[in-house]
Amino acid sequence: MTDSRSMAPDGAAEGALAVRPSLADPGAAAELFSCAASDFLRIIYLNPAEHGDEAENAVAEIVFGLAALFEETSDIVDLPEGFTVAGAAERLRPDLERRISVMTAEEQTMFREPSALLTLAVNVFFEELLERADLWFENPEHLGKYAVVDDDAIHVFLVSDETYDWLTEWAERILGCDGDAEDGE
């Protein structure tokens, strides 16, 4: 017998999202980026030597998981009206062109595919995130009371205005909803 208090009306477990988040709001997208960033940084900074291949697999799952949110058939989120993977790839290609130009011919061919290019952009997001986090954690002023990088320090980094703005910029860049901001840098 099912206890009606523990199940939502549609049979979903209590606490499950009844409505998918909409990425039409860059703030909601930035929150999803922040969650993925938090998971990623925990793997990188918290006991990375203990994880080995498991850590590499977990990082890959996070990268491909975030990229999967932007698939047009995503059942996880609602994408902005008019969003297409091809359109996102077209917007992102100029920012990624220098990186692609140094790849092998086979890799360059692979990144002609819009979904592969979008995944590359997400990977670049995580590379930049790690660079930013390394700089942040190397600065004693940012760590404040934290002597080591731990969950609290990661949280402080992710909720800083600078990092949140950067997460939002990435969401806007991928989704193409950057309002008055200009694409690329």
What does this structure look like?
With 185 residues, the protein is mainly alpha-helical. It contains eight helices and no strands. The protein is globular. The N and C termini lie far apart (58 Å).
- Major β-sheet profile: none
Instruction: Determine the number of helices (DSSP H or I, runs of at least 4 residues).
Output: 8
- Beta-strand percentage? under 5%
Q: Tell me roughly what share of residues is in helical segments.
A: 55-70%
What is the arithmetic mean of pLDDT? 82
Sum up the overall morphology in one term.
Answer: globular
- Report the C-alpha radius of gyration, rounded: 18 Å
Global structural class: mainly alpha
* Parts with pLDDT < 50 across at least 5 consecutive residues: 1-12, 179-185
What is the N-to-C order of secondary-structure elements (H for helix, E for strand)?
A: HHHHHHHH
End-to-end Cα distance, whole Å, is 58 Å
Quantity of strands, as a count: 0
Write the layout of secondary structure elements.
Elements: H1 26-45, H2 53-68, H3 85-101, H4 105-110, H5 114-138, H6 140-143, H7 151-159, H8 161-175
Helix pairs in contact: 1-2, 1-7, 1-8, 2-5, 3-5
Brief account:
The chain is an all-alpha fold and 185 residues long. The chain has helices at 26-45, 53-68, 85-101, 105-110, 114-138, 140-143, 151-159, 161-175.
